[in-house]
Write a structure and sequence with these properties.
This is Maternal effect embryoarrest 60. It comes from Canna indica. Keywords: Membrane, Transmembrane, Transmembrane helix. The protein has one domain. The chain has 185 residues and is an all-alpha fold. The chain starts with a helix and ends with a helix.
Length: 185
Amino acid sequence: MDESENKYAMSSIGRSQSTTSIHVTALDGLVNVNSLFTIAVFVGLSIASPGQRSLEGRSACDAGPDVARYLLVFEVVSFSFFLFSSLVAQGLKLAINLLNSNDIDEAFRAHINARVLRLGMLASAVGSVMGCLFLVLSMVNVIQIRLGLLSCGSQPAVRAVAALVTLVTTALAVYIATVFYAFTH
């Protein structure tokens, strides 16, 4: 190999390791955020229990067992999406690290296709977005259990739900736009 080919090969390796580092860092961030959201799932479950009186003070505004049931369903589905997202991200990280490890035999080296990497990262991002949506739905039920039913017109509950939906929807729009931009450029 002459000197110009050697420089090109070294440049390609450096660029590949830099790109790999960026992918691993992005996947690490996704797993960390999913972990925080998973904690929120369990906090939501611990705060609200069926048959609990709301802070509204009127028994007509107390949530029934159906709200508690929906809370549990949404929490489990949310947890499932966060777990899916984290496991896909961890699998991709493992494949990337095996692919770029110099200390491993060729028989154990991972061969990851760039298209598979992109699809895996997209699946992980979609899992996080879906987990967030179901987490918002479960938090709406927590709010109804603690502050009173929305149908009852409980002002604190309506304000809390409005703030939650507005802020999370805005954050998800920014996240989705950023992911879309990253995948198209």
